[in-house]
Design brief:
Blueprint: E1 6-14, E2 17-19, E3 22-25, E4 29-37, E5 46-47, E6 61-69, E7 73-76, E8 88-93
Parallel strand pairs: 1-4, 3-8
Antiparallel strand pairs: 1-2, 4-6, 5-7, 7-8
Length: about 100
């Protein structure tokens, strides 16, 4: 965890999947995603709050600062057909009591 309380999570894009596909955080957690494409085809990571990475070719990475997460947030690859094929990621807010 960073000094400001941010949590950085490494996400790998490979085989039409995000690994991990679910990231659990407590409410109020500042989340930063380090996305790396380890696949032969380009992928990106788009979240429902309109934050996204660029389309990443193989072996390229991007950092995405999602800010403070208070509620579940869904993400996916925007390349045609990839979301439907299951290339999705969820930031899941847990407990926190």
């Amino acid at each position: 965890m960073a000094a400001d309380g941010a949590v950085t999570v490494s996400v790998v894009m490979k085989d039409m999947r995000f690994e991990p596909s679910v990231i659990e955080v407590e409410p109020g957690t500042h989340v930063i995603i380090e996305a790396k494409n380890a696949d032969s085809m380009p992928h990106d990571l788009v979240f429902e709050n309109d934050l996204s990475t660029d389309l990443l070719p193989r072996d390229k990475s991007a950092t995405l600062d999602l800010g403070v997460i208070e509620a579940n947030l869904d993400g996916w690859c925007s390349v045609s057909g990839h979301r439907a094929a299951g290339m999705t990621l969820t930031i899941e807010v847990t407990g926190g009591e």
